[in-house]
Amino acid sequence: MVDLLKILEYTKSVAKEAGEFIRKERSSFTLEKVEEKGLNDLVSYVDKEAEKLIVKKLASILPQADFITEEGTAERDGKAYTWIIDPLDGTTNFIHGLPIFSVSIGLKHKDEIVLGVVYEVNQDEMFYAVKGNGAYLNGQRIHVSHAKALEQSLIATGFPYSAFGRIDDYLKILRILMEKCHGLRRLGSAAIDLCYVACGRVDGFFEYNLKPYDVAAGIIIVLEAGGKLSDFKQGSDYLFGGEVLATNNHIHQQFDAEIQKVWKN
């Protein structure tokens, strides 16, 4: 029997250790240390070493789990439990010294995320949740906001950095939202965007061209905080489907309707 609450405490300590390594390396980091995986898809030794640290630590506490990782330092082999890890969500922010980046660790059992930890390095904020046990920030229970309408809401989003095929549609959605909400924010870390929905700092978040490691941990944190998630088709393929709409639940239907005016799948 897997004790998820025990695993959560260990996972939090691993995220904190990785975050401390990232914080230390940021103090001496320079652009010469950056590698390019693809168009505007940046990585550094910091991402890779943080991921190795996380994988090694987590493998010791749950050997019956495999891994999905951004930097490919561990392989997936079809086990019931899967760790889904982004060692440094917000790499571009990190590289440029913009203080919004995080460590994101999710645990999937079969087809469901059951545990999530997101550690925002700069503010020393630890967001976490286990299925059925609520969502927390630094030991305090968190909940989504009470905004009842899109017109009362602050919305977070992300901009594509390489997949530009649907950029015109995306810009149309942004224009609609600019006229219907309090404002739009682009933070640069999808994991943090989801956590900010969970604790009520923003009322909704949407983005496309995402990967599982961008959203896995945030999914369970949003759900346990009382939020709602879908893809852009009002379906549930938001872990592997690349599209995520997360809200405080109250505005979800209205938000999705505005997306559907433009985003035809």
Please explain how this structure is put together.
It is built from seven helices and 14 strands. α4 links the parallel β10 and β11. It folds into two domains: 139 residues, 2-Layer Sandwich (Fructose-1,6-Bisphosphatase, Chain A, domain 1), CATH 3.30.540; 111 residues, D-Maltodextrin-Binding Protein, domain 2 (3-Layer(aba) Sandwich), CATH 3.40.190.80. The N and C termini lie far apart (41 Å). It is α+β, with helices and mostly antiparallel strands and 265 residues long. Strands 3-4-5-6-7-8-9 form a seven-stranded mixed β-sheet, with helices on both faces. About 2% of the residues have low confidence.
CATH superfamily of the largest domain: Fructose-1,6-Bisphosphatase, subunit A, domain 1
Point out poorly predicted stretches.
38-42
CA-atom Rg in angstroms: 18 Å
Q: In what range is the share of β-strand residues?
A: 25-35%
Provide the CATH architecture of the largest domain. Answer: 2-Layer Sandwich
CATH class of the largest domain: Alpha Beta
Number of strands: 14
Give the count of structural domains. Answer: 2
Count of helical segments? 7
Q: What is the average per-residue confidence, as pLDDT, rounded to a whole number?
A: 90
Structural class: alpha+beta
Quick recap:
With 265 residues, the chain is α+β, with helices and mostly antiparallel strands. The chain has helices at 4-26, 45-61, 91-96, 167-178, 190-198, 212-224, 252-260, and strands spanning 34-38, 41-44, 65-69, 81-89, 102-109, 112-120, 125-130, 135-137, 140-142, 154-157, 183-186, 204-208, 228-230, 243-247. It has seven helices and 14 strands.
